[in-house]
Design brief:
Length: 372
């Protein structure tokens, strides 16, 4: 999934068969390493993102506008499995074996999914920004209907924009897969298009993320100071009155939203960690030539970018309390009809009593803050 490669169109037809033959075979250690990375990445992506679907389907309390965005983001990660699978075969066989049609499909799909993921992260940042800046109007502003409309836009806009007639690029196969090769040198009119793509789908979204999270952490400092003042007042008086409870409740509510924003900031940080080496090495190869980066380094940076597809469920399971509780219940509780009460029971050799089984389902994860 390389998006910044250069190639000659005259050699394009030969790339599907001949390029792999010029590449020396990897040793058994490198091949074993590749097998492990590929197997872990694809398996973790499928299992982790399927758990997100299962959690939303099982627990009604999780069906919030914010979590709908997370489900859509999980869809991009699951769709990336197709790109991973074809790249895996290419990485292990040392050449692209699927022909020009699938080269077009995989290269386009990989680019679209990467940009759609960035837009999802941008929307999540705006969602947390609104939840903290206007907490009272947030339920009226961020509705499920508006979220669905937003998701339709962030899925269709990159797909249409990247397939405009002015997008004069073609595809090439290489030993690590099939990616986009832009004809920058052939047409001056294409150069502005590259900058427009980068500006619309990279610069603007990450600029919005930077602004919203700067606002969130500025508010965080303010409310931490306010909460500390209230807590000191309570300790001094030695009692907690109803009025002080009313004063602390809005502060605690904002504090929970801030914790949630920190979790999504971590998701953005992981995305940058996974994709930055990928884009840096890809850009360097475009400038210095395809032989400037060793194939193993290309493999590592490419699959590090793929690994971002299972990082989100991992972050949610560690930091985001609603999904953390839901994942725990999905792993421990099996669906079953317990003597007509329709409750769940813990998986294992011993069935729970109806009362205990009822407790398993009644403690559904609530939409509260992630643990820090």
């Amino acid at each position: 999934m390389r998006f910044f490669n250069t190639s000659s169109t005259s050699n394009q037809s030969n790339n599907f068969t001949s390029e792999g033959s010029s590449t020396s075979k990897d040793g058994i250690g490198v091949v074993s390493f590749k097998y492990c990375v590929i197997l872990i990445t694809i398996t973790a992506t499928i299992v982790g993102n399927t758990l997100i679907y299962a959690a939303i389907a099982k627990f009604q309390m999780l069906r919030t506008p914010t979590n709908i965005i997370l489900v859509s983001l999980a869809s991009t990660d699951l769709a990336m499995v197709l790109v991973m699978s074809l790249h895996a075969i290419t990485d292990l066989s040392d050449y692209w074996i699927f022909g020009e049609l699938w080269c077009d499909i995989v290269a386009t799909l990989g680019l679209v999914l990467a940009l759609v993921s960035i837009l999802h992260l941008c929307v999540l940042s705006i969602d947390r920004y609104l939840a903290i800046k206007t907490p009272l109007r947030y339920p009226l502003t961020v509705t499920k209907r508006r979220v669905y409309m937003c998701l339709v836009f962030i899925w269709t806009f990159p797909t249409i924009f990247l397939n405009l007639p002015v997008a004069d690029y073609h595809f090439r196969s290489e030993v690590y897969g099939c990616g986009t090769a832009y004809r920058v040198s052939e047409s001056f009119k294409f150069k502005p298009y590259i900058f427009v793509v980068v500006f619309l789908f990279v610069v603007v979204p990450f600029g919005i993320m930077l602004y919203t999270h700067a606002f969130v952490f500025r508010i965080a400092l303010t409310h931490v100071k306010r909460l500390s003042t209230v807590e000191r007042s309570l300790r001094t008086r030695g009692e907690e009155t109803e009025s002080t409870q009313r004063r602390t409740q809005p502060v605690m509510s904002v504090k929970r939203e801030i914790k949630s924003a920190k979790t999504f900031a971590l998701v953005i940080g992981v995305f940058l960690f996974c994709y930055t080496p990928f884009f840096v090495t890809g850009t360097y190869r475009r400038v210095a030539g395809p032989e400037a980066i060793h194939n193993l380094a290309t493999f590592i940076t490419t699959w590090l970018a793929f690994a971002n597809s299972f990082s989100n469920p991992l972050v949610y399971s560690l930091r985001y309390s609603p999904f953390k509780k839901a994942f725990r219940k999905l792993c421990r509780c099996e669906k079953g009809r317990g003597r007509g009460n329709g409750k769940m029971s813990i998986s294992g050799s011993r069935k729970l009593s109806p009362t205990q089984a009822g407790q398993c389902e009644s403690r559904e994860p609530k939409e509260n803050a992630p643990n820090t």
